[in-house]
Amino acid sequence: MMRRRRLRALWPLLGLLFPLAASASEPPPVVEFGFLSGQLSMKLAITALEACEAQGYAVSVAVMNREGRLSSFVRSPLASPMTGEIAQGKAYTSALTQAATHQLEGAEGVSYAQGVVPVRGGMPIQAAGRFYGGIGVSGAPSSVDLECAQAGMEAVQEELEFLDF
Length: 165
Fold this sequence. Notes:
The protein is of the alpha+beta class. The chain is built from four helices and four strands, in the order H-H-E-E-H-E-E-H.
């Protein structure tokens, strides 16, 4: 009799454990994505712009979210208007491929995709195992464009690393 009471007391616990075991092997029904706030996106873009201007270059900087949508954009007053389109193309390329644009230089088929700019100066925005989008810089020599994008990333890296989800 005492044994039966103990078993009955365990039934609710077993009911709790089995759903957990079943759900551990199933993929979650909802996937969480992180998007940069407008403020953080602008901080990233402005820091990259300032890094290039400090070296004497008039540039445009674009930040795209993970879907390839424009999140922020800044342009030096003296930057050529075409730098805006190129910066957006670099950011778009990194956002969609999750890769630095220079890694795609010469890749077959990439140049056929509309809006893709596979030249140095774009990089993915990622931290702590999460992907947020891409940044693109245009108007300086491409190696400097990349340095400026990296400066922008360094400015927000710590904030991204310690986000709570």
